[in-house]
Amino acid sequence: MPEEVMSNQEASRLSCMWSFGLILMQFVVLTGSAHGASCAGAGLAQAPLWVWPLIAGCCLFAFGTELAVLTSAPSWQFKFSYTIPSTVMNIFDVCTDALAAGVMLASYNCEDCRLEAAWKQVAAKSALRVNIPLWSIALFAWLATLPQFLIPLFTDSHNSFVDLDLLGFETIASLPEKTSDANSTQERFMFKFFLRLLAENAFQIHVQITIAGLSIALTGWTSAVYMMLVSIGTSSVMLLFKLCQLAPDVFAVFEMNKRDRFGKIVFFNGLLAAFVVVAYALAKILALFVCPQHLLNYNGCAEFDV
């Protein structure tokens, strides 16, 4: 290839292919784990083992996709090959989130499961006393991740590399950085901040920690809980990684809107909310190992009858 590693049209085709593929992959993992999981008493159901090779295959395919693009332009290989692991982690994170949602749906249908009963006690003592079934919250948390995969299919972006970044293909998305303009930077920041950081990771991680904590309190450290901890750990790493990635764009977007007082207020409030959500998520992870019943509420460790 010449100086242009990949054209916008090629990037658009690739983003549409992976957008459809990731939606299909998540649907297969979620429905497969929801129907194929085996009940495990009062806590989380056990996910079927066949989903793990499927997830591994999807991650390897993502790795091969980016590697194929890089090998077509040798001069770019050294500069960007180090970011490939983050793409594999992004795909793994997305797949394990779907797996966690499917396991929660399967648990709800188990006769001996007491997650919902324990959740009602915790919710009644929380700052926001919600009366929403835990399975529906888990399903909504997964649905909140879908917009980032639907955008490349239903929008005609002037920069398809932004769509690839939204899908988690950060190596390919970094290729045209020399020609990126202010609009692309702002578009990438907004998508990545609200859809990937908040909707995909921050919301998901809170729901998964709650489910894991309830299950540990009910049945102890089962293999189903360790599966959930894998998803929580992956989401936590990617959440912190995305915060670091967004740091340069934060200053760039601030400079673009520094004359807009209302825009600056919204911008800073959004950042503050994100850091509060992240800090609370990390505190809840610590509570899994510190609190007697493994859950944190707004006024300290949560208490409920098991």
UniProtKB/TrEMBL annotation:
Sorted UniProt keywords: Membrane, Transmembrane, Transmembrane helix
Spans through the membrane: 49-70, 134-154, 265-290
Protein name according to UniProt: Uncharacterized protein
Organism: Oxyrrhis marina
